[in-house]
Amino acid sequence: MQGLIKVIRFIISIVLLTVSLYASEGLDAFKAKDYKKAFEIWTIEANNGEAKAQNSLSYLYFNALGTKLDNKKALYWLNKAALQNNVNAQYDLGMMYLMGQKVKQDKKTAAFWLEQAAEAHHADASYNVALMYYQGDGVDINVSKSAKLLEQAAKQGHIKAAQSISRVYMQLLEFDKAIDWLIKDSARGDSEADYLLGEIYCGYERYSQAKKWTARAIKASYPQAQELWDRYELDKY
Known about the structure:
The chain is mostly helical. 66% of the residues lie in helices and 0% in strands.
């Protein structure tokens, strides 16, 4: 089957961590580019146990803003924030361990943190850990769990997840679920989705519907669409 998801790796730049900077006086200082003051404020708040401040402080350490670059301290505070269920921190840690960025690559740890973030409905975390379950990358292969996570992300508007979930449902032979997502894929201009809808409806012997979708695939010059049309003699319907 064409179109099954492929593992997509994201190169993480520490500068682009998904930190949600803590909305306090520290944020005002940060916006004013007074990083030293932001560092001082967030250090106090982080030591007082504020998870968002801990996450923000890790960002300053990673980027040498208001303080010296210190990846060890940055990871310390990022871990502290993640352990307090800061979703952005959990996602960042997961991706860092997945890619081996600033830490030794550890895919089991990556899966743990990405799943924590996915449970809090972080769409990118859901998508990336879904890929891990699909491929058995650091975890046991579990295509059903992958589908669940992909659908969760897709319902939140994650485009790559939405493009993948229909194909995974087809692999699981859950064709009714696949149809719903393939129709959405088609609306985004995915001609393979048109072809796959034609294929599914031919399998269901619902040839009038198969004709509609296969004709769309042919119009888009999708390979194999004409062969499907001829094989089932869809011009009769």
